[in-house]
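Human:
Care to share another protein and its fold?

Assistant:
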Amino acid sequence: MAQLRAQLAELDGGAVQEPIGSEGVVPLSAELARVLPNGGLPRRQVTQVSDTPSLIVEILRQVTEAGGYVAVVGWPELSYAELSEQALRRTVAVPEPGMDAMHAAGVLAEGLDVVVLHTRSEIQYTPAQARPLLARVRVGEAAMLCVNATVPSPALRMSADIASFHGIGRGRGRIAGIDLEVSAHAKGWKRPPALLTLGAATGGVTHLKAVPS
């Protein structure tokens, strides 16, 4: 944990800035914000996110390009190819946290904007198991995104499914982009899902529009 704290102190040359956005949320793009309560990810709370790597990487990209700091715990297979060099300097990766995954995520939540906690298989934490993590999240600054790791009563549930691919025609061609159907649900909040287009050929997000429910 001492090494992890030292890594935090060295982020972006040690020039860690104030948290981005408003007091209560980590802002995302205007398009993606349409499906989220208050236009962003809730700070000091847990958001349950589906195991959709492309959505997670897009969130990381948006937050780091806005000047925020992020971390990913327990996801060695996640590709960061879509992140710029500057974004990578604002990213802490802990691919193999061992038995300390929740503790590592809790430490990182103290000073970053977004922390992703990923487990290889689905885990349902009991209130007693989740309590130490939730306590750290509440006193920190981060929006905690849990993928496959389920805690009791998350503030927000966010999911994405691949709707279609771009660049493939009649059995050949290369994938140039994908459409994700993104939805979010919270207590007292439900909006129609949205279609998010991602891909290197499109330079990131090209559009996000409501999908009729």
Summary: Residues 200-213 have pLDDT under 50 and may be disordered. The chain has two domains: 2-157, 160-210.
